[in-house]
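[recover] target loaded
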């Protein structure tokens, strides 16, 4: 039973910063890619950033240079440092992870966090 618990969202002024955290717990053998997605009202959920097991990263063009994704493999935790926030960054942010369970072989599993609200005021 794997759960992803997110934290760190909140209300900030434009130009401010937030750091989101997402911790995975349960019978996890290994974690492959981890990522952050966001969804604003009336819009599709979109990829913000991903990080592979080896530490390679990819970012949406809209956040390049402002956001940084990182992970702590020992803690099964992924972070998203968000700087120079803009009102258009306002959304619910969700973490996602692909993983293998202890005692099992075969296909990977995927789980989503519950979401954390980020609101950026003008």
């Amino acid at each position: 039973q794997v759960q992803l618990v997110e934290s760190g969202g909140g209300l900030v002024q434009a130009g401010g910063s937030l750091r989101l955290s997402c911790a995975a717990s349960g019978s996890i053998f290994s974690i492959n890619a981890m990522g952050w997605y966001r969804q604003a009202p009336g819009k599709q959920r979109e990829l913000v950033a991903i990080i592979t097991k080896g530490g390679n990263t990819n970012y949406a063009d809209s956040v390049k240079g402002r956001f940084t994704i990182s992970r702590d493999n020992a803690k099964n935790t992924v972070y998203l440092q968000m700087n120079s926030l803009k009102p258009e960054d306002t959304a619910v942010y969700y973490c996602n992870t692909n993983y293998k369970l202890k005692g099992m072989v075969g296909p990977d599993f995927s789980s989503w966090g519950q979401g954390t609200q980020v609101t950026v005021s003008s």
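[recover] notes: The longest strand covers residues 28-39.
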